[in-house]
Amino acid sequence: MFSKFTKSLSILAFSILLLSFGATTTAHAEDAKDTVTAEKKESSEGKFDPAKVIMEHIMDAHEFHFATIGEHNIAIPLPVIIYSKERGLAVFSFGKLEEGETYNGYKSEEGKIVAVDAAGKIEESVTLYDFSLTRNVVQMLLALILLVVLMLNVAKKYIAGGAKTAPSGFQGWVEPVITFVRDEVCKPNLGKKYEKYMPYLLTIFFFILINNIIGLIPGTANVTGNIAFTLVLAVISLLVILFSTNFHFWMHIFWPPGVPFLVKFILIPVELLGVFIKPAALMIRLFANMVAGHIVITCFILLIFIFGAMSHVAGWGFAPVSILFTVFIYFIEVLVAFIQAFIFTNLTAVFIGQAMEGAHDDAHH
After folding, report:
1. Which residues of the chain have a pLDDT value below 70?
2. Radius of gyration of the chain (CA)
3. Quick one: pLDDT at residue 168?
4. DSSP symbols for 135-195
5. Model pLDDT, residue 48
6. How far apart are CA 320 and CA 304, in angstroms?
């Protein structure tokens, strides 16, 4: 049954990728082309800055930009919520600030909302507090709603049918994943106490996975490639790890056994730093891996325009090579989306198991 499910899932994933690739390449190319045109207008020399284009692609924004057709942008502007002591609260659509326009004393400066005077100059004296719903925030909320809806639907089927009924629909997709996390992640690392941590570990696994997959859709945000997002996940994991500690864990940190007396004074601060370095490694690993793939895809698309700026023949000649490499990296990114969700979950379980050091060893014996 699992083999048939795997084959079906592979066929479905391959079909979705083939359908979405054309839109993905077009969206990236049109976005890069639009950025190139805008920068040529702004720069007196008309030089193309690939680094700026890449940073704009991976950074947060106030709209979901899908493509540019002629001079028209296909985008969904998001709400801008600004507060300042000098001007009070201001709420409006980001569409009011497109193409450097000024609205109600505000304008967008390199993706950041700033206050301006009547002449359009930035007022440094006005302190702004930005509570806007950016695309990272909106997409994260949508992913959270999607996760809750899907899992509640699966839970209802289990409540109605029980364990004796064969899984169907989305339930059949989720059950092998849950079983894998339980048998390969939780039980080996947490022993008899694995059931206590299953809800948390499954939540972070599916939450990261959903955000990774949605981030591959053209026009969406790379939420897991945002250091603030991975920082919050790492802090939550750190709290879970600290609340799972016991006496044996802290004794090994503040008085390591089996080492010379003087060495203890060197080892104690190292072990204490390790408590915070572990979740920091989770944060950096997820952030670096997810942002790297998006940068590579954008770089291959931008190479078309870089060669095209030199010669139209070179641009068109390199286009097929760029597209082939983009397809390859896109397939790799789908695999990375699953791998990074698994690694974050598995390492979290490992660190929790280390925090329950004494009890965990006893459980295994």
Report:
1. 1-48, 53, 70, 99, 163, 358-365
2. 25
3. 73
4. HHHHHHHHHHHHHHHHHHHHHHHHHHH-TTSPP-THHHHHHHHHHHIIIIIIHHHHGGGHH
5. 63
6. 9
Residue 43 lies in a domain: no
Number of domains the chain is built from: 2
Predicted pLDDT of residue 11: 39
Do residues 155 and 90 both lie within one domain?
Answer: no
SS3 46: coil
Q: Is the distance from CB of 176 to CB of 339 less than 8 angstroms?
A: no
The pLDDT assigned to 74 comes to 79
Region class of 251: left (phi > 0), else alpha (psi between -120 and 50), else beta: alpha
Give the Cα separation of 221 and 61 in Å (integer).
8
Q: Within this chain, do residues 209 and 273 fall inside the same structural domain, yes or no?
A: yes
Q: Is residue 86 part of a domain?
A: yes
Please tell me what DSSP assigns to residue 120.
S
- Residue 40 is classified by DSSP as H
DSSP state of 89: E
Q: Which of 17, 30, 80 is nearest to 57 (CA)?
A: 30
The token pair at 298 is: 């954008």
Question: What is the three-class DSSP state of 126?
Answer: coil
Over pLDDT 70: what percentage of the chain? 82
In a domain, 12, yes or no: no
Together in a domain, 114 and 241: no
pLDDT at 163: 66
Domain boundary among 132, 148, 169: 132
Q: Give the three-state DSSP class for 63.
A: strand
Supply the range of the domain harboring residue 313: 135-364
What are the angstrom distances between the C-alpha of 190 and each of 184, 193, 250, 251, 316? 11, 6, 18, 20, 55
Q: Is the same domain home to 291 and 166?
A: yes
Angle of the 261-310 helix axis to the 312-355 helix axis, nearest 10: 160
